[in-house]
Amino acid sequence: MNGSSEKNLMERFESSIRNPLDDKTGQPYFDEFSKCTKDKLSEVNVLHITNFHMFIKALGYCKYSLCKDLKTNCRVFFRGQERLYGDSFQPALYRGCTQAGAIVKRNQRIKAMIAQVRKSSKVLRTLHPAVVEGLLQHYGAKTRWIDAVDNLWVALWFACHHAWCENLCGEEHLHYSLRDPRHEEADRRFAYIYVLAINMYRDKENGRRSLYKQFIPGLNFGEEGEVLDLRYALPSQYIRPHVQHGVLLRTYDASTGFEVDMCRMVKLIIRIDIEDALSWLGESHALSTVSMFPPAIFDTGYQELLRLEKELLSKSSKDDNIKPVEIFHTQRVE
Predict the structure, then answer these.
(1) pTM of the complete model
(2) Are 7 and 36 in contact (CB under 8 A)?
(3) Residues 6+ apart with CB under 8 A from 275
């Protein structure tokens, strides 16, 4: 995070509001609805909010203020997490990677994976490699994209759920369970919402040129980075991105690649007591795990990816040109 600017955004929001339950003396009648504080475990500055309407107000304040400050139409998105991991904000492909040589190898591996998948699928070969990479990200691969959403309920859902992952016979199985504060340590009973923004301004004369030579549905870029909206980029046979309001983000580095750490996208982190977050989320079939992660019987795109993975694994045992490490492995969500 860019510490000074994000803290400034938090402090500006905090000073712009007044608790409606304050009495005439100006003293708070109840606890504050929002306050700037430092998260104990991660030591990251956060805006702690205890009221749903104040939560909505904070999100709206970020959108309005960021566009007003930048004097351009930046795009603002959300990402829900049950934990904070310090100041870094890395795509899954680069996590734990610090050496330049290792980064190059990982870039080569993801490019090989994309090429292999496109070559093996009639549907996917019609899609641009950037879109295929986004699709693989959404179904479990580690790529150069970061998942985000533009729907606060989906962001809350992920912040209120714990992901259990187990590798069984070479297959990655994932299970999401609703968090229960009774079984969590006091310092961990929080839900976190990242507020992410990318400046979509483009300097047509002196700015960065597009990395792409053709129009790609759902893909937009500015001087800072790219936004891929999978709801426009993919056909509806891939249900998961549509039900999760799936958007993917990444920022450019100084050359022609993508940043290993995309922390400059993080404009604010909102922290909520998990009890409050669970109460705001509520209970609905539309917010169940089976709805958020539709099974392959309905998500025929997911079904096709499972078939493709099995086919490539079978071919790799007979073809030395197909490296197992470059085969996409679909996460099986149960």
Answers:
(1) 0.89
(2) yes
(3) 181, 189
Please state, as a whole number, how many other Cβ atoms lie within 10 Å of the Cβ of residue 170.
Answer: 8
List, edge to edge, every strand of the sheet that includes 161-168.
161-168, 171-178, 332-333
Query: Which residue type is seen at 20?
Result: P
pLDDT above 90 (res 190): yes
Q: Taking phi first (over 0 means left), then psi (-120 to 50 degrees means alpha), and beta for anything else, what does residue 282 get?
A: left
Please tell me what DSSP assigns to residue 315: H
Q: How far apart are CA 50 and CA 176, in angstroms?
A: 25
Contact present, 148 and 227 (Cβ < 8 Å): no
CA angle in degrees (0–180, nearest 5) for 277-280-284: 115
CA distances from 71 to 6, 63, 67, 208 (A): 17, 12, 6, 19
pLDDT for 269-321, tens place per residue?
999 999 999 999 999 999 999 999 999 999 999 999 999 988 888 877 666 66
> Quick one: average pLDDT of 97-122?
90
- Give the dihedral sign, CA 42/78/163/130: negative
Q: What is the DSSP string of 47-112?
A: EEE--HHHHHHHHHHHHHHHHHHHTS--EEEEEEES---TT----GGGTT---HHHHHHHHHHHHH
Report in angstroms the alpha-carbon separations of 104 from 93, 109, 140: 11, 9, 21
Q: What are 89's two structure tokens?
A: 């904000």
* pLDDT band at residue 8 using 50, 70 and 90 as cut-offs: confident
Q: In the numeric block, which tokens belong to residue 304?
A: 């096709």
Instruction: Pick 15 or 146 by higher pLDDT.
Output: 146
| DSSP H stretches of helix in the chain | 3-16, 52-70, 100-120, 129-138, 152-159, 230-233, 239-243, 274-281, 289-292, 300-316
The amino acid occupying position 116 is: Q
- For 147, phi then psi, to 5°, come to -70, 140
Q: Which residues pair with 38 in a beta bridge?
A: 45
d(CA 194, CA 223): 22
Domains of the chain, by residue range, sit at 3-333
